[in-house]
Task: structure prediction
Amino acid sequence: MDERNLYLQSLIREACNHPPTSAQRSKAINRLLRYVENLKRTENRGNDIYEEALYKTMFNLSKTVCEKYDPHRGSFLTWFNICLRNQYRDELRAAKRDRRQSVWQNDQAELDPLDQVASPVDATLLLDTWESLVQWIKDDPDNLLKTCHIRNNPQVNCQLLAYLKLVSGKEEKDIATEFGLSRGAISSHWTRKCKSLMRQWLDKNQRLFGEDNYER
Result:
């Protein structure tokens, strides 16, 4: 585990060792949230929907991290990214519903209250299904990930990149440095090739990110 995740783990341990309503827990949680906010806001700066999802995820985290997060199942950032992706998807769907309402209904029409409620982040479900994805990455039963590699560099394949990026939480610049490649080469291969393979798996396993819960 890298230094960043070790630091985050130490904040979580510090927070959860104190009573829920104590000032000590609040202080540790606030330090954790400030760190995560500074880390994540740079990824989609200016994206209002993303920032809304980020703040809602952090709010949920502040209330549930000690009960929901299990460090034995993976790094904190991996867990947080799953919850954030789930919330971001909810926000996109809500925005799409709002746009549809504005087109087909007049200004006096009321939205269905049920449509305005985002589906909850079920961290237990997310972690269980996340383990399935991680296992698929590790096993690569059809050799789809391993055989999809950067040209003339079979070592740097989609199996390796998926494990380093999604499971270990490594940044592309650190992966590039480790293997003597440019960040652009890593980013290009991941975007053009590996993400498509991840999407194929997700399409076949829609339980991930609580997808079953979206059909109301």
Remarks:
- Residues 104-127, 207-216 have pLDDT under 50 and may be disordered.
- The chain has two domains: 3-120, 122-216.
- The longest strand covers residues 153-157.
- The chain is about 65% helix and 5% strand.
